[in-house]
Amino acid sequence: MTSEIDIITLFPEMFTPLENSIIKRAVDNEILKIRLTQLRDFAFDKHRQVDDSPFGGGSGMVLKPEPMFRAVRHVLQNSAKTSRRIIITDPSGKTFTQAKAKELAEIDWLIFICGHYEGFDARIYELADERISIGDYVLTGGELPAMVIVDAVARMLPDVLGAADSAETDSFFDGMLSFPQYTRPRDFEGRTVPEVLLSGNHAEIKKWRQQQSLELTRKFRPDLLDGEFA
Fold it and tell me: Of residues 4, 66, 118, 215, which has the active-site annotation?
């Protein structure tokens, strides 16, 4: 299971969300280690420049290969774990799914390379084992996608969530949307909790939840039923 995560970024200050909630609990309980590496620390010049204009012309700046190679080589010295995967968050990658989160959670050490500006020098891709995208839209950099992936993976780790089976009731865990949940009060302005949930019959409750999950998926995300989980 994943126990160490390294993130190479130009903006480590963006990762404060990882210092809260579920991930904070995982770090505090020493289930997970998260290390942030500032890419500029591996630049060669006094201005700490890590980007340059592209050959052939064009707008924007491109991340240079030398600082990134130096940063990755430095990070690889941080752990003796042999089960590892280096990931570039990039629009050319396959779209991130719950199945991928489960797969990554089985790998001891994840290393994320976050891009910025107009992209990477193409030689940087040689460093990565795979590319992952979180969707077909444009973001300023790879930091937010990395945080999304880290959060999804952390939820899969043993003892991270308060209840052992919490992750299994999440949407997409088994390829479908989650079933509806209710809590007190039993009657809120005429909106009542389904009687089956009050029955104490666990077999019937399980059956109802499975049926509701399927119906919600058919209504809101029918594409999931034809996808990789079907």
Answer: 118
